Amino acid sequence: MGFNRIFAAVALSLVSSLSLAADADEAIRKTLQSLQPDLPIEAIAESPMPGLYQVQLKGGRMLYASADGQFVMQGYLFQFKDGQAVNLTEQAESVAVAKTINAIPVSEMVVFAGKQPKTHITVFTDTDCGYCQKLHSEVPELNRLGVEVRYLAFPRQGLESQAAKELANVWCAKDSQEAMNRAKTQQSVADVECDNPVAKQFALGQMIGVSGTPAIVLANGKVIPGYQPAAQLAKIALESN
């Protein structure tokens, strides 16, 4: 077979593959949007598993679907290789979450940096959450161990709750660190109004799958649900950096 014929065969194969991918994209989108019209689809692509497509949602979460869109599933996709099981879903979601979280301006967070941070964690927090208060009491120890703590607001009872108002007061305070310290020790925080990011951060938390507080996001995007003691959390955070 001459070079021109080989080139034509390759080109035809590529066009065919692109056409199949486009058809799959359209079919999968049609199915998902019929289930939820406002589903925030970021991208659709072939997964490492032949015949299965991965649907990346805005914020990081992943769905899987058949090429014709008739089958959709949510769960973990593992690859077994050389006796090891690799969670491909968790890897992909962590990359997307890290990109999303690390793009948030630090000015929109309440940050406890410490003197020489080696890594950071981002914590979706509430004011009336007992384990959030416990974690906050260990922030100085986390800072001492080299972990910067960045807070995002997540009023788990909703934006009309008292906690949402308290979080807004914290973010609007002239000294947001001091206001956070007061809120986490069940002291009152002065009512202040400003253009705050509480609603936006709450929506972001829901988008990446946060359902309770504290929800801790490591620098690499891995989400740890729930409280972890300072020493253990610092070890995990530093090892994942």
Annotated CATH architecture of the largest domain: 3-Layer(aba) Sandwich
Total of helices: 8
Number of domains: 2
Mean pLDDT: 88
Question: At the fourth CATH level, what is the homologous superfamily of the largest domain?
Answer: Glutaredoxin
Biggest pleated sheet: 5 strands, mixed
The helix/strand order is HEEEEEEHEEHHEHHHEEH
At CATH level 3, the topology of the largest domain is Glutaredoxin
Shape: globular
Structure description:
This protein is α+β, with helices and mostly antiparallel strands and 241 residues long. The protein has two domains: 3-88, Nuclear Transport Factor 2, Chain: A (Roll); 104-240, Glutaredoxin, CATH 3.40.30. Helix content is 43%, strand content 21%. The chain has helices at residues 3-35, 88-102, 130-137, 139-144, 162-172, 176-184, 198-207, 230-240; strands at 41-46, 52-57, 62-66, 72-73, 78-81, 84-87, 110-112, 119-125, 147-153, 215-218, 223-225. The strands form three sheets. Strands 7-9-8-10-11 form a five-stranded mixed beta sheet, sandwiched between helices. The chain has a four-stranded antiparallel beta sheet with strand order 1-2-3-4, sandwiched between helices. Strands 5-6 form a two-stranded antiparallel ribbon. β10 (215-218) and β11 form a beta hairpin. The longest helix is centred in the first third of the chain and has 33 residues, at 3-35. The model is unreliable at 6-19 (pLDDT under 50).
